[in-house]
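ok trying again, last paste got cut off:
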Amino acid sequence: MIAGHESVSSGDILLDNRNITLLPAAARGTAMMFQSFALFPHLSALDNVAFSLKMKGVPKVQRQAQAGALLERVAMGALAQRKPGELSGGQQQRVALARALITEPKVLLLDEPLSALDPFLRIQMRAELRRWQKELGLTFIHVTHSQEEAMALADLMVVMNQGRIEQTGTPHEIYNRPKSEFTARFMGGHNVIDTPAGKIGVRNDHIRIQAISQGDIAPEHLAAVVSDIEYQGSYVLLGLRRPGSAPTSSADADWSVMLPEDVYLSRPFALGEGVSLSWLPHQAHALSPKPSSPASPVFK
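nice, full thing came through this time. structure:
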């Protein structure tokens, strides 16, 4: 809708205090960078970047000069005459970015631009996108299904669920204080715990875990059984089930606890071992409805 490729069902789209709802796509001041990069395979990098200027009737010398300057800016000047098939994924992305910027948009729309890249290159290009956004001073609207990518790139995050906004805020706000069960589970790293007063969220690295001694457990603690142990290098992820339920994989665990590697190795837990879970008052936050005392629930 922002780009003008779909009709608005209700409301208006404002860009720089200008209503662009009914404007054609080319007149909106937006540009789009696609997931597949959508480069013309028969054109050089230079001609790909200059293509939109060609469609506007800009003389060849002028459009190639502008395209060349943008390719230099994204460190692709030396490869300007190569075709997309002769470029790596990261190089193709730089060409696609230059092509999107050639029209001098006010907003750049990015449709999962990193999803086609391998993990190492994805991290590298993530840093480059962040640097370009700061240098250009442009608003980027970046769509991604990667929570890690969103938190690394965003100044403002919008979590959506089937077209409805669940929560907006900075990455720190959303990760540390999700307002709904959906946001807590979608962002990951959270336990959603039922209490008599409602659901609460607690980060899995904030959970304190200890073995149950002779079956005793404090009334304000949560009883659990270790159902899965995953070594992840710098930390160990424990999957936990309610007592009495069969052990299964961490994917189906009721809760999880993340322990630094050295902490786990100083006191390893065993599959099937009974444990108690607790947390500090400020580490628990209400989801909905709001618990009256999320830090010290009584579990039954």
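cool. Helices lie at 45-55, 60-73, 89-101, 119-136, 147-153, 171-176, 181-187, 261-266. Residues 147 and 181 are 16 Å apart (CA to CA).
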